[in-house]
Amino acid sequence: MKKLAIFASGGGSNAQKIHEYLQEHPFAKIDCIVVNNLNAGVISKAKNWDCEVINISKNDFYKDSKISNLLISRGVDLVVLAGFLWLIPQHLLQAFPQKIINIHPALLPKYGGRGMYGMNVHKAVFDAKERTSGITIHTIDEEYDKGQIIFQKSVEIESCKSPEEIADIVLKIEHENFAKTIHKYLQK
Question: 19, 104, 122, 138: which one is catalytic?
């Protein structure tokens, strides 16, 4: 059984959907949830998932390889970023080459990069009067949103009247596709 470490900073809706998918398709288990925010909603969700919640500080994350060593010692096969907002440090990239994936709420390479997350992305897409948006699931490298694209799905947003409407539509396709894509990626 493969082991996942899910990194999250917020509510954890994608982590929840991954957990639900694993109940139906037990190809892997969530070994741990790594958070950088003690108020993250994902913490209360994870209490029922038979996994450890690990809180990290910026100092722990960037100054040494403690988190990399911990994940290696736990036998983690894949690191999944599900709303995690910090740039991944070199030690983690070296410990898990091509084994850290992220979901982005737009069709990369458009609307990616530093500061482009959540509603910032949807507002930029809305302001640009795009007719489509979507999701990109990609590997992680040294730069925000520049890794290898694993999966993309677009959706029509022409009738959306606000960035919030775009966010709702995009979140729905995130929930439908993230866990399935993780499953396929781990089968390679």
Answer: 104
